[in-house]
Amino acid sequence: MKIVLDRGRCTGLGICESLAPDHFEIDDNGDLVLLDNVAEGDALAEVEAAVSGCPTEALRLEP
Q: Cα–Cα–Cα angle for 47, 36, 42, nearest 5°?
């Protein structure tokens, strides 16, 4: 699954980073960095939790 980020909605809270640290990171400026924009295998559950846990709905998954 491909991770899609809507930068206009992201506020840099870091919930996604705490749930899926191999895919998301908040940089020193408070901006979200996608470390890996593809989620598969065991990591998919973590990324799905990060997407559903995003309070601003800035993340989504596409096949």
A: 45
